[in-house]
Amino acid sequence: MLPIGHYLFLSLALFIIGVIGVVTRRNVIVVLMSIELILNAVNINLVAFSRLYGDVAGQVFALFIIADAAAEAAVGLGIIIAFFRNRETVLADEMDLLKW
Amino acid sequence: MIPAGYFLVHLWLIPLFPLATAALMLIIGKRLPKAGVSLLCVGSVGLSFIYAAGAVLQLLAAEPEHRVAQQILFEWLTPGPMQMTGGRAIQFVADWGFLLDPLSCVMVLVVTGVGFLIHVYSVGYMGHEGGYYRFFGYMNLFMFAMLTLVLANNMLLMFVGWEGVGLCSYLLIGFYFLKKSASDAGKKAFIVNRIGDAGFILGILLTAVTLGAIRFTSQGLPDAEGASGILQALKAAVDTHALANGAPVLTGIALLLFVGAMGKSAQIPLYVWLPDAMEGPTPVSALIHAATMVTAGVYMVARMNAVYQLAPFAMDVVAVVGATTAIFAASMALVQNDIKKVLAYSTISQLGYMFLALGVGAFAAGIFHLMTHAFFKALLFLGAGSVIHAMSGEQDIRKMGGLWEKIPITAKTFAVATLAIAGIFPFAGFFSKDEILGQAFDRFFFLWIVGFITAGMTAFYMFRLLFLTFFGYSRADEHVEKHIHESPPAMTVPLMILAALSIIGGWIGWPGSLGGENRFERFLEPVLAGVLTETGAVKIAHHALAKEIFLMVASLAIAGGGIWLAYQFYRTKRFAPELVAAKWPKVYQLLLHKYFVDEIYDAAVVDRTKDLGTLLGRFDANVIDGVGVNGAGWLARFGSTLSMWWDKWIIDGLLNFSAKMMQLFSYPVRLLQTGLFSSYAMLILAGLVVLLVYYGHHVQVLLRSVR
């Protein structure tokens, strides 16, 4: 069995990639995909610790997160399509309607 | 038969008949046939005459001192508290009531009798004129007002009649209202009368506050003791020495009332309207401006004789004004060429005689002359109307002449009236004029001379008129000449009746010196006694027989002299009027232009009034409109500008200022809010990193425990 540190490192790497994606990318779809990466980084953590401690609750929690991510993707993509229909753009820096 | 006292309790019907027909004429007269209009209007005046005559006859049945019938129809102004001078509070009351005493008997008979004859005449005279119904409507309205005036039992109701006759006079002078001179003359009469009326109403008010009554007398009323009358109040005041003979307030009342009489009876200085009033139809001149309305002032002064007898100064003023007017107007009549203008000035002159009589205390003589004058002057005017009718509307006596044969009835009746006004025995004017001059002789010798000379002038100008109109060669135009014709019977019959009255009308006052007993004066005595029990300052003088005969001969002589002069001037041509005029051109011009009085009034009053109007107009345009209205507008605009500025800069400014400040202070905060979720995410991340660094130690411990 691999030591927990490897899992944590993988998870950290995925998380950082996700964060960088969310912060830097302009395309909202890519941002949505990056958020998926962050969620999955969390999932890896949960599953890894579940295995380490022999506690199944972590895995159950991970399953919830996957379900949640699916719902989130559905809602998020729906918003993006609706927005695109209105403004014909999916670029984040053009979505500044809430700006004062 | 007619029950005793029937006419006396139906006094109110006398003015009501003409009022009813006047109302009928003015409402539906246009749709009535001419015959209907004539029948109704003349008939109503005839009915009034019958009722008046009946009432007078029934009054005559009573004893002389009980010859007063007073009847109150209703309370007109309900009693109200009024404070008299001196502080005594009384109940002021004015009723709509009628009074028939010897004085109003004379007036009511003259008004209805002469009025009836003139109405009959008008049927003939106005037959071809337009507005026939309108003419008769106004005439009947006039009869109503005049009868109200003479029958009124108090001053205020008298004033109603007084104003009513003024209105009708205005309407009838301006009857041919399309003619500018006629409508101007109407206005002139109305406006000049206003001045007099102001005096009259002030006199009424002063009487009311001084004596506490405006009813002439309480005699003849059911509760004669309780009811208040001027005569009774005056008597009480004199008896208690509250008012002495010649008290200033009584002089004030008398003078104010006389101002009213001046206006209505055309005395100096308010006579100017009467000559112009000749613009009206000739029957109007006869009825209103000769026989009845213009004598209202004489009647009013005689009616108020009790006050005048206690105001010797006012009496003197009346006498002097009367005598001055008499000679002044007579002098203007000498040179007039319009047949009606001569008669108009003659009327003014004769009214002056009446006031002379009143002023010297010969009230009965004044009323006597009023009556005889009504007969012969109405006759003269109607005769003049008949002449004008025959001459196709020509009024200039220079274009007449030789009418004696062509219109004999008119000419003969006119001659009778001329003899009457000249004062030739035994025509009516002789008795009345002689009575006046006889009274003036003792009381005011200088005024007697004035009246005496006027008598000569009267004879002269009247015979000048007679000679120029009816004698000599015809100077008329050819086409006028052809149409000369005698008037129809409707016109000539009234002329003949009036001629008869002009002859015999004076016999009722046949003086004692000629074997008569002057019944007229005796008849009026109860009304004209005044309130002074002892022989006062003003009392009718009784002359010695010889003196009276002398005075009569003297006035006959001067009348004869005037006639002789007129005969020499205009018949034998021994003197030529043109030469006389050329010899004294200034005098002639002065007389011809009526002393330039109209011009002086225009310059002194009318133009000044117009100037005042212009001035007030300018004041209105510049000060009221300029400073006032426009100023107020400017002020409102200025205020609203100020208010707007306040609103814009202070109220709105405060709001905007707070918003601006908000904007200013929100600047750094706003910089953070980019609206880009990536920058928000970046900030979250930065926050996370800060937290991690800050709590790094704890994280390290956490990680170590995990391992």
Description:
The complex is a heterodimer of chains A (100) and B (707). Chain A has a single domain, classed as Helix Hairpins. Chain A is built from three helices and no strands. Chain A has helices at residues 4-24, 28-53, 57-87. The longest helix of chain A has 31 residues, at 57-87. The mean pLDDT of chain A is 89. Chain B has 29 helices and two strands. Chain B has helices at 6-9, 13-28, 34-60, 102-125, 132-151, 155-173, 180-211, 230-239, 248-264, 273-276, 282-291, 296-303, 305-309, 312-333, 339-359, 363-390, 408-422, 428-443, 445-470, 478-483, 489-504, 519-524, 545-570, 577-583, 585-592, 597-665, 667-672, 677-694, 696-706; strands at residues 69-83, 89-100. Chain B has a two-stranded antiparallel ribbon with strand order 1-2. Classes of the chains: A mainly alpha (100), B mainly alpha (707). Chain A binds chain B through residues 4-5, 19, 22-26, 31, 92-93, 95-100, and chain B through 670, 673-678, 681-682, 685, 706-707.
Structure class of chain A:
mainly alpha
Number of helices of chain B: 29
Distance between the ends of chain A: 54 Å
Mean pLDDT of chain A: 89
Biggest interface pair, residues each? A-B, 17 and 12 residues
Query: Strands of the largest sheet of chain B, in order across it?
Result: 1-2
> What structural class do the secondary elements of chain B suggest?
mainly alpha
Total strand count of chain B, please? 2
User: Helicity range of the residues of chain B?
Assistant: over 70%
Question: Tell me about the biggest sheet of chain A?
Answer: none
CATH fold-level name of chain A = Helix Hairpins
Rg of chain B, rounded, reads 40 Å
**Main sheet attributes: strand count, strand direction, barrel closure of chain B:** 2 strands, antiparallel
CATH architectural grouping of chain A: Orthogonal Bundle
